[in-house]
Amino acid sequence: QVQLVESGGGLVQAGGSLRLSCAASGSIGTVIAMGWFRQAPGKQRESVASVSRVGIPNYADSVKGRFTISRDNAKNTVFLQMNSLKPEDTAVYYCNLRRIGGGGLENYWGQGTQVTVSS
């Protein structure tokens, strides 16, 4: 099993910054990618950013130029630096780990951390 523990959410004014962290532990195995999703009230969960095993990042169009994802492979930790935050970034942010397991491609999720951006 894989456990993901997130930290760093909170309340910030528009234009401010937050940094999310997610530490993975357990039987991590062969990780394909780690990343962040978010879900706002009444909306579907959406991908925000991800980083591959070899460090290639991918971003949603809505956060390009404002958010930066990074990864510490040695510590199995992924970070999301969020700058120039907007009220529409308000959501619960979930850490995601994707790996190859016994049953093929597997996804693991953190418990979620609330990010609230006030106008």
Explain how this protein is built.
The chain contains no helices and eleven strands. The radius of gyration is 14 Å and the shape is globular. It has strands at residues 2-7, 10-13, 18-26, 30-39, 46-52, 57-59, 67-72, 77-82, 91-101, 104-109, 113-118. The strands form two sheets. Strands 2, 4, 5, 6, 9, 10 and 11 form a seven-stranded mixed sheet that branches. The protein has a four-stranded antiparallel sheet with strand order 1-3-8-7, with no helix packed on it. It is mainly β. The model has no long low-confidence stretch (mean pLDDT 95).
Provide a count of the helices: 0
| Poorly predicted segments | none
Structural class: mainly beta
The major beta sheet can be summarized as:
7 strands, mixed
Write down how many β-strands occur, each being a DSSP E stretch of 2 or more residues. Answer: 11
Gyration radius (Cα, Å) is: 14 Å
Average per-residue pLDDT, rounded, comes to 95
Helical content stands at: under 10%
State the end-to-end distance: 40 Å
Shape, per Cα inertia axes: globular
Q: How large is the share of residues in beta strands?
A: over 45%
List the helices and strands and how they pair.
Elements: E1 2-7, E2 10-13, E3 18-26, E4 30-39, E5 46-52, E6 57-59, E7 67-72, E8 77-82, E9 91-101, E10 104-109, E11 113-118
Parallel strand pairs: 2-11
Antiparallel strand pairs: 1-3, 3-8, 4-5, 4-9, 5-6, 7-8, 9-10, 9-11
